[in-house]
Design goal:
mainly beta, single chain, 1 helix, Nuclear Transport Factor 2, Chain: A
Length: 73
């Protein structure tokens, strides 16, 4: 069973994260639309949504494929 945190990608340098929806919202000519929220955590540990983004799965995967892997020094 998955929970909300399974769809979260935390920032490694701040208290922000990307919270993805658990399923695609719809299919358009551009591709499968995925909703994600940009979240932040207050000093009082209260989660707050900064904004929502609607992106396509296809574009996200294409951009990730373009990113060169980090080298190990």
């Amino acid at each position: 069973m998955t929970d909300k945190k399974d769809f979260e990608v935390p920032c490694v340098v701040s208290r922000r994260s990307l919270q993805f929806s658990s399923k695609g919202t719809q299919r358009l000519n551009l591709g499968e639309v995925i909703e994600l929220d940009v979240m932040t955590m207050s000093e009082e540990d209260v989660e707050r949504k900064i904004c929502s983004l609607y992106i396509t799965r296809e574009k996200l995967l294409a951009v990730l494929d373009l990113i060169e892997p980090a080298s190990y020094a």
